[in-house]
Fold this sequence. Notes:
4-stranded antiparallel beta sheet; Dna Topoisomerase Vi A Subunit, Chain: A, domain 2; single chain; 5-stranded mixed beta sheet
Amino acid sequence: MTAAIDLFIEEARAVSVVDAAVSLGIVGPSFKGNHAGPCPVCQGKDRFAISSIKGAWNCRNCGIGGKDGISLVAHAGHIDVRSRAGFLAACAEVIGKPLPDEAERETEEQRAERRKRIEAQKAKNEAAAADREKQDNAYRDREVKQSRGLFFGASADPHADVAAYLKARTSYDMPAEVFAYLRSNARCTYWHGRDERGHEIAHYTGVAMIAPFVDPAGQVTGCHQTWIDMRCEPKFRPDLGTDARGDPLPTKKMRGTKRGSLIPLFGLMSSTRWVGGEGIENGLSIAGAEKFRADTFYFAAGDLGNLCGPADPKSRFVHPDLTKADKNGRQRRMMIAGPEPKVDQAPDEAMQAADHVTELVLLADGDSEVIFTAAAMARAEKRLTRDGRTVETWWPPVGMDFSALMTRY
């Protein structure tokens, strides 16, 4: 082995996993921390990981990993580094330079074999992706159909507990129009866990408020269920026990598709003024305070992710205070999704405001972590801003949401 080849190999070995990942377009130039996403070979959605802290990568599906840029580039390029020629070809790829003249090169047969491996893997990936999409679509269709059945099977004649719940959580009596959207089921089953035969267990049955998720065309795509127990103050929701980890079971569930859809609360979607936030109770609290304005459409997004949409990964930042323990028990500063919206996001990745909306008011939660929420609301404002439309965020006092504000004063 000549000095030129020795130098060539050492230069390749100096390329880190992160540098190689940047050159392959897997992560951005400013990447720090941990990355999880699709593998460049098997395309598994969340089985491929890169750690800038450990300087390592691995794919749980392929069962392979490494701690240098050579191994990552070889994996992505289907290069067999077990042969001398393959190893040198990977070195050339990782530093973007041609092989020294005296270096051993892949033969035509080896290159043809590598191309064959790439085509075979590509065909396998495409078949697997098509199968996953087919299964996902079938599952989504079943969920949408079931959620529509839950909503349209619920009563538009409000159960006394649903009306009492909304009055208790907002301090306002609801007009009849609200109950066209917020229906009730006096005996709604809460399914949780599975028995020894794999069947879902009917964990609880009680009164539930059933709300629809509707898409921009007004079609029902999902439903939101809130179980109610007027004996359980202050939020009037039942104690359903805990899950396997000891965490309280949620008293709200969402079925079907919520991304890109929203929950109508009062008014018409044709209105030019829209007001809404994450939750049903907060939206109706503001609607009541505004005396259910006839020119306004009040809505809920269901959760913060659907309201604010995904963030541009480049806008992530370190939280000034919060830390999180890694798997070794070491406390590390938490990374927060930033204020910039994901570039070129699809309409079904988050709720949309109709083009005719000229005034949009977003409702923040003051009882959520303030920095995380502020970044998310800033992202929502940027995502939903259009020419001819004003977008602003209303904040309740720190430590409160609008529901608590309206019922306290």
